[in-house]
Specification:
Strand content: under 5%
Distance between the termini: 73 Å
Helix content: 55-70%
Structural class: mainly alpha
Largest sheet: none
Number of helices: 5
Radius of gyration: 25 Å
Number of strands: 0
Order of helices and strands: HHHHH
Amino acid sequence: MDEQPPLPDDISEEELRAAYEEQLKQVRVEDVLIQTVVSLLNLGGRKSGLAPETADEKDPEQLRQAIEGVRVLLPLVEGTLGPDAKQLRDVLSQLQMAYAQQAPGAPTLDQPSEKGQAPSEENPEGAGPAQSSGRLWVPGQ
């Protein structure tokens, strides 16, 4: 059983509880959600290992969870945030890019393409793989 720290002589436990209850009345759910989004973005930044001082904290799974948490919560508070929402979305995008580069099996810039070959430069004007597969509609082509 944890011991409670001693209360100052002039404040009773009942008065302290009443003060805490009064503070809780002032807290809005939006404020807690915003604080949670910012905390997840900060923690995700650390887990991305992008900053040199956080390289030893890199954890793609934790980064993924932070990203997913922000993706769920951010739409709930964007109206409250107003123009500041863009800044948080930008940070989220940076974390998503970092995760895409770190995810198992993700090709890096110096690795061959998905089929095990470097991209062909023989016909830069021709249809690319998405166009030739029929998955990409390009007007006039």
